[in-house]
Amino acid sequence: MHSPLSPQAELAGVHVDVQRTAVLRGLDLVVAAGEVLGLIGANGSGKTTLLKVLATLVTPVEGTVRVRGPVVLLGHSPALYPQLTLRENLRFVAGLAGRDDAVADAALATVGLAAAADRRADRCSHGMRRRADLARVFVTEPSLLLLDEVHTGLDVASAGLVDHVLDVVRHRDGASVVVSHDRDQVTRSTDRVVELVAGRVGPAVIV
Ligand SMILES: Nc1ncnc2c1ncn2[C@@H]1O[C@H](COP(=O)(O)OP(=O)(O)OP(=O)(O)O)[C@@H](O)[C@H]1O
């Protein structure tokens, strides 16, 4: 077990260029274990790019990235195979994580989708697909959870499920980073909010 004070993720002097344009410019960020960090910023400020750096999907041209443990990134659109059922999708995720089918089925039940488990993903509503995507967290048990605008289009109950998932990660001493354009939402769901400005993390935001 690591010390509660040790960071879950640490970025130092990170520079990222996207199509020859500097998006992140010497960005420093520490995400503490057990923390839920909110990330806001104008369109195009680099929030999604920052999440991809934390998920090691984008490699900076300069700077260091340290992330401990498994990472799950839930993007703008739920990552499901449209022609597979929700159960098949989650069992596939479980297989990749070396876990058995029962874990996938239990995760679907946890997010309130037991009755819809055998419905194809492309026949489900956006909210149902988002819930199924969130179920991945119960299968893969990430130490770092990255949520990119996942509140969009969710009703109150589904938004509550997002908060529940954040609590589950926090109680395991994992960390989460939540990107949102909704300042009220992100303030309610997180311990601290920072803003991306000119490719760097600005001062903490008090809303
Ligand atoms: N596939 C791409 N092709 C070209 N430019 C891109 C691409 N992806 C990102 N960019 C550029 O990188 C910058 C950062 O994009 P990013 O998606 O990280 O911002 P964001 O803060 O998440 O934006 P939004 O709030 O609109 O989702 C943008 O200015 C955009 O021009």
TrEMBL record:
UniProt cross-references to Pfam families, sorted A to Z: ABC_tran
Record-annotated ABC transporter domain positions: 9-207
Any GO molecular function: ATP binding
SUPFAM superfamilies named among the record's database cross-references: P-loop containing nucleoside triphosphate hydrolases
Protein known as: Heme exporter protein A
SMART domains documented for this protein: AAA
Gene3D superfamilies membership: P-loop containing nucleotide triphosphate hydrolases
Organism listed in the record: Lentzea albidocapillata
PROSITE patterns according to UniProt: ABC_TRANSPORTER_1 (PS00211), ABC_TRANSPORTER_2 (PS50893)
InterPro entries reported in the protein's UniProt record: AAA+_ATPase, ABC_transporter-like_ATP-bd, ABC_transporter-like_CS, ABC_Transporter_VariousFunc, P-loop_NTPase
Keywords associated with the record: ATP-binding, Nucleotide-binding, Transport
